[in-house]
Amino acid sequence: MDAWLVWLVLAVVLGVVEVFTLTFVLGLLAAAALVAALLGAVGLPVAVQIIGFVAASAAGVYLVRPIMRRQLSRGPVVRSGVEGLVGRSAVVLQPVDRDRGLIKLSGEEWSARSIDEDLVIPVGAHVDVMEIDGATAVVYPREALP
Questions:
Q1: Residue 25: exposure state from Cβ atoms within 10 A (0-12, 13-18, ≥19)
Q2: What is the pLDDT of residue 37?
Q3: Which parts of the chain span the membrane according to its record (predicted)?
């Protein structure tokens, strides 16, 4: 049996086992075995294939795996509660100025005030929530006001 075929079988076995363990190590070793199989398929000697396998394994385990683990450990950023309302759009129900107002935000009525102290936002205008200050949404109009 040719050496490249042995490397190919090893790559498949390691890949299948990786699917069940999810360690990221066996998958990288499977990729290294594929590198060795390619080296064998082009006719390079077994010693070169082994060196290629070791180099590809080391590169995968010491360079690629930490990056993969870091990316997967972050997880999606999920904002909830009042943090989840920042950046959302709302509709003005009562005029909003620097002191008071009322908006409809995520299906609920919220007290609101304008982030720009000199601005009065009329009823029906669409606004973006810039921050939540206690129980008050601090807003700014989406479009220029007339």
A1: middle
A2: 95
A3: 7-40, 46-64
Q: DSSP secondary structure string, 85-111?
A: GTT-EEEEEE-B-SS--EEEETTEEEE
CATH number for the domain running over 81-141: 2.40.50.140
d(CA 108, CA 127): 15
CA distance 50 to 56: 10
3-state SS class at 41: helix
CA distance 46 to 130: 64
Q: Which pLDDT value is given to residue 69?
A: 83
- pTM of the full predicted structure? 0.52
Instruction: Check: CB of residue 134 under 8 Å from CB of residue 102.
Output: no
Domain assignments of the chain as residue spans, ordered by start: 3-74, 81-141
